[in-house]
Write a structure and sequence with these properties.
468 residues, mainly beta, five-stranded mixed β-sheet, 3% helix
Length: 468
């Protein structure tokens, strides 16, 4: 592993090299150097299928043409056989053009050998910048290898103020997966238990209908008295019975364990929650919910080592069925009533660490409540986390030797909404988070933004760094 120096944590981080980075051009000092640096420190070769982009950023807009000379140092890889680049390298030297009026640049890395493994490393080093008043500072080296990412800054695309996406992020590979949060309804657990989760991000809720084991006999008259209760945000403390435990404990889902004994598996009333909002809110606010999605009745049975889902609209006298298998590579197999099919949602269980999502949480004394800008960690995939206050330690100076393993928790709400202040529209600056991923890599993570430069909500940004 390579020891990482304190580094710049976003596109903005490059500007922090300079004393006047936040000033306007009118106040820019004559002697400020022109700097080009890699946007992040590394990429994981294992996660590159065919090609990937390596980004560089400038400290200012280039005001003349020039070149950047980048040297390649590879181990157990041969240029032209195992990999190539664009621009093409000559004798392990890439000459990258600087165009006047631009402030970014890229190198395309082409992976030719799919069998490249952890014995391979390819380092790119900025050796010279041919531009007036230039200086080599900051992230001047970039490493391609098969080890965990050394860290980066990420701006997850959650969909702006409507926050239409759930975004799953793998810190070790710097990868993210975004899915529309109303694209699924039920998650069927792939672990040892037979448990089913409901979609917290669209404020679903569900209640068992005692006395009903035949889904076809349930009518609107049987559920009308329940419908006002089986909902999120009613400010009734008792409505927590109709949602999954926010802590992520699979044994505390609103739907009971699916029983081997068929008669024990009751019919459930399901509140399908809300479509994704489309309104444009006032600056600094979020518009999460659209129209109500309606109701379903469901019953879930065991079929050998699989699930059998029965489902229908409330007044239907017949139902549909689907058999859903467990997949040990994933936490859940997901089902959508919109498509009547199993759908892809989360990455494989060991290939994501945190998720940015809308979420159903609990307010003590007021029951279930909907939260925007929420962050969970992948506790079912063995990711752990804890929070630290800067009154006891400092993010920049925090090192692997400072990690308190006793503080790690599988409660998926540890980050939760604890990272942001919605009244100021900014992240709290008195705390940061420690994450241990499924491969026992440990990261420190610090949030940098909640809004964009216009003050619009739904534009989070965070930095993280591998502790080693």
């Amino acid at each position: 592993m390579i020891t990482i120096k304190p580094y710049m944590h976003s596109i903005t981080f490059l500007l922090m090299i300079f004393l006047v980075s936040s000033c306007s051009e009118d106040t820019k000092l004559e002697n400020d150097p022109f700097v080009i640096a890699f946007e992040s420190l590394s990429k994981n070769l294992i996660n590159i299928k065919d090609k990937d982009t390596i980004s560089l950023v400038y400290s200012d807009i280039a005001y003349e043409t020039g070149t950047v000379i980048i040297e390649i140092d590879d181990i157990n890889a041969i240029y032209g056989i195992d990999y190539t680049t664009k621009p093409e390298a000559s004798n392990h030297i890439i000459t990258l053009s600087i165009n006047a009026g631009e402030n970014t640049n890229t190198i395309i890395f082409n992976k030719l050998n799919p069998l490249i493994d952890e014995t391979t490393s390819i380092a790119l080093d900025i050796k010279s910048i041919n531009h007036s008043n230039s200086s080599i500072q900051g992230n001047s080296s970039f490493l391609l290898n098969a080890s965990a990412s050394l860290g980066s800054s990420i701006k997850p695309n959650v969909g702006g103020p409507n926050q239409g996406y759930q975004v799953f992020i793998d810190l070790s590979s710097e990868s993210s997966t975004a899915i529309q949060r109303d694209s699924w309804d039920l998650g069927f657990y792939s672990g040892d238990n037979f448990r089913v989760t409901i979609n917290s991000s669209i404020y679903m809720a569900t209640a068992q209908l005692l006395g009903f084991t035949d889904i076809d006999t349930v009518t609107q008259n049987d559920v009308s008295g329940l419908q006002g209760q089986v909902a999120v945000g009613t400010f009734n403390p008792e409505n927590t019975a109709y949602i999954d435990a926010p802590n992520g404990n699979i044994l505390e889902t609103a739907i009971n364990e699916v029983s081997e004994i068929e008669e024990e598996n009751k019919v459930y009333l399901v509140n399908l929650g809300y479509e994704i909002g489309t309104d444009t809110p006032t600056i600094g606010s979020a518009a999460i919910t659209g129209p109500h999605r309606g109701w379903k009745k469901i019953r879930i049975l065991k079929k050998e080592d699989k699930y059998l889902l029965q489902y229908a609209d409330i007044d239907d006298t017949t139902h549909q069925e689907i058999t859903i298998s467990k997949n040990s590579n994933y936490n859940f197999s997901f089902f959508s009533f919109n498509t009547n099919t199993v759908v892809s949602v989360e990455p494989e269980k060991e290939q994501w660490d945190i998720s940015l999502t809308v979420f159903t949480n609990i307010i003590e004394g007021a029951g279930s409540y909907g939260y925007s800008d929420f962050v969970t960690h992948n506790s079912k995939g063995a990711t752990l986390a804890y929070m630290l206050k800067t009154s006891t330690t400092n993010y920049t100076e925090f090192a692997l030797s400072n990690v308190d393993y006793n503080l790690f928790s599988d409660n998926q709400t540890i980050i939760g909404a604890n990272w942001r202040d919605v009244f100021s529209g900014t992240p709290y600056n008195d705390r940061f988070f420690i994450i241990q991923d499924p491969n026992e890599n440990i990261y420190k993570l610090n949030f940098l933004a909640l809004t964009n430069s216009n003050g619009e909500r739904g534009y989070p940004e965070f930095e993280y760094e591998l502790l080693q």
